[in-house]
Amino acid sequence: MVTTLVTRAVAGDELRARRAGAVTGRNVTAFRAGGAYWWLVISGMAEPLLYLFAIGWGVGALVGDMPLPDGRTVSYLTFLAPALLAAAAMNGAVAESTMNFFAKMKFAKLYDSVLNTPVTPVEIAFGELGWAMMRGSMYSGAFLVLMAVMGVTTPALALVAFPAALLVGFAFGAIGLALATVMRTWQDFDYMGVVQFALFLFSGTFVPVSSYPVAMQVIVQLTPLYHGVELVRGITLDMLSWSLAWNVLYLVVVTLAGLAFAARRMRKLLRK
Amino acid sequence: MTDGAPLISARGLIKRFGDFTAVDGIDVDVHAGEAFGFLGPNGAGKSSTMRMIGCVSPPSGGELRVLGMDPQRQGPDIRARLGVCPQEDNLDQELTARENLVTYARYFGIGRKVARQRADELLEFVQLSERAGSKVEPLSGGMKRRLTIARALVNEPDIVMLDEPTTGLDPQARHLVWERLFRLKQRGTTLVLTTHYMDEAEQLCDRLVIMDGGAVAAEGSPRELIERYSTREVVELRFGTDALEPYASKLDGIGARVEVLPDRILLYADDGDTAVPAVYERNLTPSGVLVRRASLEDVFLHLTGRTLVEA
Ligand SMILES: Nc1ncnc2c1ncn2[C@@H]1O[C@H](COP(=O)(O)OP(=O)(O)OP(=O)(O)O)[C@@H](O)[C@H]1O
Ligand SMILES: [Mg+2]
Questions:
Q1: Given CB atoms, is B158 within the 8 Å cutoff of chain A?
Q2: Predicted complex ipTM
């Protein structure tokens, strides 16, 4: 009852996990059936791996070891890997929640039929996010296994990092859904791609944020991927501290805000 | 819900899109077990009305109760008991026919096992069992329509809402759909459908409203409407020319009314067989004469005046 009232207030509609799950389930069914879709997933995993080896080894050989805030030094590849994991979680979630979601809403008109069932717009938003996360967790899981095998992190820390990577995916999935509801044409996705790439480059991924000018440090610290990188790097490199709680809180708030916005917009777009 | 209370009840129901009023204050009651029709030309507001009843489009004004509930507040509860076949087939293109039904059942919270069982039964019901594993794309228009109708039945709904169930189908496919809908009706399912086919309305509907320009022009059973707005029979006259006005004026007084269509003249008379000789007595020699029973089409033409010049 309380949750009903809360979701009604925030998203304007009822929210039942079972019905959101049915939306996720639809995507699982489509995924199993579609051959081409697998390629998308494989290519999604290939990208961070290419960066890891090309930059991690290549540039790493020039840069040498990296000092960590806690005084230790690690190889450049070790420094880079967790950031690539966070970025991969972002990319996977955004791809699913913007492009695919937009196509389903605008072109396949998939939700027109779904809305004739008891399923509400907010349940669709949650269901799609759930699916984006399933896809994201495949990327993250595989990448974490690789990190543990390469000795970049320990298996125990990798296990802790897994839900953290999922949270990064949740946050970007929610942002992606929200953005998709305001996109009008495919052109808009090009702009989004540029922003996404800028986040990828400047969120402390390749160099510590402390090496930027102060003004830029402030800006970077307001953006979501920075918090994702901090969180995942903090865990996998064994720098557990309370500051990570802030990163978690930031990502949770972004997730909820994105979902609420997306659900409200969808209600407007689809219930004419 | 008390017995006898209408399943759907609208009073002064309005739908506006910006400044444009698509549905302009209609009153409608649909009772349990009834097959109810909305008949009207393109843009009459049929789909807009259906979408409001289906709780996917919020009314702009007036009152609406569906299954005794308020669509604004209890949308999910109402939709759980409706089966909707929209005007355009919006099947899930990425799934097979069977997956479409199973997945749709899951949206209603139906368990996997029951969902699969229903999917198979319904595929059988609409004669698509052989195509169960086929994706949507390669299915013919008629097959897609039947699949969409099957999908609307997956939750065993109290009310089935069909927006132009047979538009675009060939006669054979139409008859199959009619036959299936008739079976549903016999099982006691309440049907609400829209159509611009008069024969469809006559065949399927116990009661209907004729809509035009967002308003209800007339309401009743097909037979009542024909009795009220038409004569028993109609004589269709062709003269091998499109300039029919001169002929029409010469027909004055033979029947109750004369309507001029682009290609023929309709002469409304209770007894066609006495009207035809009267035409010849006035020295008119039509190239084609057809006496037929009056249909809803005549009622419709009379009420809406569409493409007609009143004689
Ligand atoms: N989403 C919308 N935005 C703006 N106008 C709309 C919208 N939907 C319908 N209309 C307008 O409302 C009017 C009624 O449309 P509606 O679809 O209800 O008619 P209809 O009786 O179903 O017609 P048809 O037989 O062509 O399906 C039309 O003039 C249509 O252009
Ligand atoms: Mg319509």
A1: no
A2: 0.81
